[in-house]
Amino acid sequence: MTTATTTDVEPALQLPPAKLFIGGEWVDGSGGTFASENPATEETLCEVAAASAADADAAVAAAHQALDGEWGKTSPRDRGKLLWKIADALEARTEEFARIETSDNGKPIFESRYVDVPAAVDALRYFAGWADKVHGDTFSVAGPFSMAYTLREPMGVVAAITPWNFPIIQAMWKIAPALACGNAVVLKPASNTPLTALKFAELASETGLPPGALNVVPGSGSQVGRRLVEHPDVAKISFTGSTEVGKGLMKDAAETIKRVTLELGGKSPNIVFADADLDAAVKGAYNGIFYGKGEVCAAGSRLFVEKRVHDEMLEKLVERTARLVPGDPQHPKTKLGALVSSEQRESVLGYVEIGKQEGAEVAHGGVAADVNGKGYFMQPTILTGVDNQMKVAQEEIFGPVLVTIPFEEPGEVVELANNSIFGLAAGVWTRDIGKAHAVAAKLKAGTVWINQYNWYDSGAPFGGYKQSGFGRELGSAALDYYTETKTVWVGK
Ligand code: NAP
Ligand code: MG
């Protein structure tokens, strides 16, 4: 037994096999390998096997075998029990998953530990509860027939394609409802962050999920992802990612009339009226843009502030932001981690330059940050003097960059807020509850938060208006997107 103290030494990451998980087995891909990088240290965590189009086909075949075999014969109640068991197993290993998520993505460990992994566990439990409650209806119908009823059937093989900003959460928002409804899943995780999805496949399999019910195929989006979208035996694509990729995906899916749900980008307005609790609004605006490094689809990235309180609000916000120091994501006190990749930081800093050229002023940040000489860190950034028509107010920056826009009165701000191709989320801050509801009703967004921002729950639907996508994840609404309705007529 060792007597040396190990309290200061981090245990090694317990990485999953960096291969493809198909039909319950780890297999080598035939698409080469790619490096999974830690963006805070620039170190390669591991080389991951990349799937080819042929591997994607093998995963789809394995998923069909699962539907024809043990998984397809598992009763809804047993599916629920199994999902709950997997949730318990994931919860018990929160720390292992959290450390891998933080290492792969660069997000602070406090987020992975207290938000990402627990939210994934919660989604599994929530949809476990639905597994045996998805049922059809009976109808009184005219004509010589006596009745009609509906069956809610699984769609078949669901391909889930996920982004890199919330890897385990995004995966679970798809896997949990898909499996609860009796589908089989082929998951293509983002190339920047493939590791927790692979580790989850291992855990689910060890906990008793039958072979082929969940397959994971890391690899290039334009090859593996696209093959899944075009595959004639995939019934449905559940995609979360950029609007640009989503548009191409819709076209590719059209060929086979595939069911598609799209959770895409955003440029969400966060609106502060002069009668708001200003300190609460400052906190909400700050969390709305800097939580998750601003690499959050629903980030409150356009801050509209009523003119009368604009300067006061800005002063408080800058003061708070100045205390947000980028740091080692593995440190428990770090609140701003590393952006996911060098390219992402370049792109975000590029937007700051565009903003400056457009006439915006940098009230805070705007530059890269040095944390031990390594990693893709940047300072939290606030741009002022922004007009809603500027590029930095219209395009998704997807980083810790807030633009602030003053406004005169409620009618004007609703129009400005809705003047965007996106419609994912919005925030409203006011003590006037009547005004809050009136503005919420007029905003073209899938989620509106009143006097709070960035709250989610497995029970509440989430999704976009306009070019932020269609379909809803979470809540009972999600079940509609993982089942087909069959109407059966019964004659005499
Ligand atoms: P992305 O570039 O669109 O990639 C998303 C996923 O699609 C990745 O797994 C990617 O693979 C894959 N992909 C790329 N090209 C493809 C193709 N032609 N066919 C099929 N799949 C393809 O997005 P990202 O940069 O990872 O994520 C950031 C974006 O996601 C932002 O726009 C953000 O707003 C959005 N997002 C939306 C939500 C929401 O719920 N609305 C949530 C989170 C993020 P590779 O990784 O190999 O490229
Ligand atoms: Mg990575």
Low-confidence stretches: 1-7
CATH topology of the largest domain: Aldehyde Dehydrogenase, Chain A, domain 1
Mean pLDDT: 96
Please state the overall shape, judged from the principal axes of the Cα atoms: globular
Number of helices: 15
State the helicity in percent bands. Answer: 25-40%
Decide which structural class fits the backbone. Answer: alpha/beta
Describe how the helices and strands are arranged.
Layout: E1 20-22, E2 25-27, E3 33-38, E4 43-49, H1 53-68, H2 70-73, H3 76-92, H4 94-105, H5 109-130, E5 138-139, E6 147-154, E7 157-161, H6 167-180, E8 184-188, H7 195-206, E9 214-216, H8 221-230, E10 236-240, H9 243-254, E11 259-263, E12 269-272, H10 278-290, E13 302-306, H11 307-322, H12 342-358, E14 361-364, E15 381-384, H13 391-394, E16 401-407, H14 410-418, E17 422-423, E18 425-429, H15 433-442, E19 447-450, E20 465-466, E21 469-470, E22 483-490
Parallel strand pairs: 7-8, 7-10, 8-9, 10-11, 12-13, 12-18, 13-16, 15-16, 18-19
Antiparallel strand pairs: 1-2, 3-4, 5-6, 6-22, 11-21, 14-15, 17-20
Helix pairs in contact: 1-8, 3-5, 4-5, 4-7, 5-6, 10-11
The structure holds NADP nicotinamide-adenine-dinucleotide phosphate and magnesium ion.
Structural summary, described in words:
The chain has 492 residues and is of the alpha/beta class. The protein has two domains: 268 residues, Aldehyde Dehydrogenase, Chain A, domain 1; 189 residues, Aldehyde Dehydrogenase, Chain A, domain 2 (3-Layer(aba) Sandwich). 38% of the residues lie in helices and 20% in strands. The protein contains 15 helices and 22 strands. A seven-stranded mixed beta sheet has the order 14-15-16-13-12-18-19, sandwiched between helices. Helix 10 links the parallel strand 12 and strand 13. Helix 3 runs antiparallel to helix 5. The protein is globular, with a radius of gyration of 23 Å. The N and C termini lie far apart (78 Å). The N terminus is likely disordered. The site of NADP nicotinamide-adenine-dinucleotide phosphate has 31 residues, from helix 8 and helix 9.
